Amino acid sequence: MGDNNAKDDVENGGGFGLWTEQVEEAVSDVDRTMSFTRTYQQPPRHKVEEYPAMQTLLLAYQSLGVVYGDLGTSPVNVFSSTRLTNLTEEDLLGTLSLIIWTLTSLVLIKYVFIVLDANDHGEGGTFALYSYICRHINIRSKFSIRNTRLESDEDMTYYSRGSPLRTRTRKFLETNPTAQNFLTILVLLGTCMVIGDGALTPATCVLSALQGIQSRSSKITQDHVVWISVVLLVALFAFQHCGTSKVGFSFSPIMLLWFVTNVSIGTYNIIKYHPSILKAVSPHYIVKFFSRNTKTAWDLLGAVFLSITGAEAMFADLGHFNKRAIQLGFSFVVYPALILTYAGETAYLVKHPEKISDAYYSSLPDPVYWPMFVISTLAAVVASQSMISASFSIVKQSLTLGCFPRVNIIHTSSKHEGQVYSPEINYFLMILTVGLVVGFKGGVELANAYGVVVIWVMIITTFLTTLVMLVIWKTNILLILGFFLPYMLIESIFMTSLLNKIPQGGWVPFAISAFFLIIMLSWTYGRSKKSAYEAERKMSTRELDEMLSSSNVYRTPGICFFFTDLVNGIPPIIRHYIQNTNSVRETMVIITVRTLPIKTVLPEERFNVGKLGLAGVYRCLVQFGYKDSQDMKEDAYVNSVMAKLQEHVDNMNEKQRIQSAAQKGIVFVIGRTILKANQGNGMLARFTIDYLYRFLQKNSRAAVSTLEIPPERTLQIGMLYEI
């Protein structure tokens, strides 16, 4: 559903893509006098990237070791979490039927064949859905996530235009700030929950696998299990810097072996214990189970939901691979392997219902127990990978939309833009995960915490995907209702069952999510106030001309490159600079740097220049791809900017003045702003700006930190924004 529409949307005009944190949009309308002049011919339109069949198969194989670890190892936990007593064959058939139809409806149909289509230039997750929606809905409320557009983007090879479709829903969202703020909070909440799950998943998966050894040796205590888990987790996080591709190649053989052995054992158990167990595919066993058990069956839903934890990683990790690879991996390997594994466990439990507390390991034939224990432990380590990779992707998207403190994002592949690694996020997750393992010592509280927030992520994804169908895909309203109502009902029922776990440890992921939500809300609020301040106080061309024409301002020889993240207009810090120094270089170039979601920017599209007012003042937009070197130390960079400026200038005297200025010295000026809340703000606003935002700003990377600027020619100018 929506595949053809989504594809046409990208080819014929889907959106403007994602930019990095260097770009800050003014809240007010574009100052037309500051707009960039197009200095190049229109290139061919962007086409959807097609992957060769062999490359898609290779990516599908790699996805086994990155995307499906958590979902693939779920058979270890599900039955042991049910806590059912006095089991009958009908109860087990009903439980298996619930698992089969939960996997089929919520994962195979919803995620694999519907949600994966709602991607933003190959990126998945709640932020990608938000960005995809923002390419069609102009969201401009004061608290909304940044979404910057430039007219010049329409001529770039990566750009595609927005759909002209205007619906009542779109008009409502564009004109209702409350709805926009609700959408923003919803997206931030879903994102924080995925990051929180990224810390909880490694802790739970590794502990669950290692605890199986205690059933075979009384000498192995819980403390031994905890510290072995810590060692494995530290090794896992230390391996992340190698990148998704190497991690995938290393982990994929483990997961492939895991699926193959589980299919073999599951088939063996089916044949030996209950050959007709697959009759549970009939949903009438679910009806019979609920009619017979009622409250017990409802409580069981929390355990059944563990069978699909990790499904959200398929969408969040999309940028590391591609849609077709993930669809192939799940449909032809993961899905059938999981069905047979659960069927094998159920067949064993029909004959040995007393073993349900340790169902997976008990169902293993004795000759293969220890080999399977080793494989399951390795698979549990791999299971942690899906949410770690998802966290990297989500933080990258958060940075792109300006609602997360700036951290280092390293692209680990020159072929796939979505394969990223963040050292700060990696080590923060490692500390958090180890802290959870040691703090809870693998107790029941940690097990109860697992999967509780995932259902909320799924509900948010259902809501946002419905919005995509309504506003972008132009889907028939009956099909939209056929998607929204059943899935919202099913997921709400699961959610009510999972709420029971909150007092018993389920509060942990909510606490982690709340921590990240405070960070993101504080940063987003601070950035929005900064944007509003700059938009209200930005300089006009006339004001700049008057200041430069004053007899008190001295035009010193040489060139000044003044870096700013304000795209439209002249930032107030330039007024501050001129007023306090009474001097400006004879040639001043106001530079804004941004990184586009492509490997490299064509040389003719690297610089976009324009003239501002009096002679000697220019504007330059510098655009990089994610693998382009941002080295500005060499003379080649300066010469390129000078050449582009000279191309733009018609006056021969002005061309000579630019060339002469370059020979008299160059200085790079970086503006740094500090926010301070005035007394007119409420106590919460003052605390957010003066403490939370300022702390985050001091401890995050500078907006131009990726640029290689010669330090001996760099000057930093500070300004206090009292907002």
TrEMBL record:
Its main location: membrane. This is Potassium transporter. Keywords: Ion transport, Membrane, Potassium, Potassium transport, Transmembrane, Transmembrane helix, Transport. Residues 557-723 form the K+ potassium transporter C-terminal domain. The keyword Endoplasmic reticulum does not apply. It comes from Forsythia ovata. It is a multi-pass membrane protein. It comes from the Eukaryota. One of its GO terms (cellular component) is plasma membrane. Belongs to the HAK/KUP transporter (TC 2.A.72.3) family. Residues 59-543 form the K+ potassium transporter integral membrane domain. GO terms for molecular function: potassium ion transmembrane transporter activity. NCBIfam families: kup (TIGR00794). The chain crosses the membrane at residues 92-114, 182-210, 222-239, 251-271, 328-348, 368-388, 425-444, 450-471, 478-499, 505-525. Potassium transporter. It is found in: Cell membrane; Membrane.
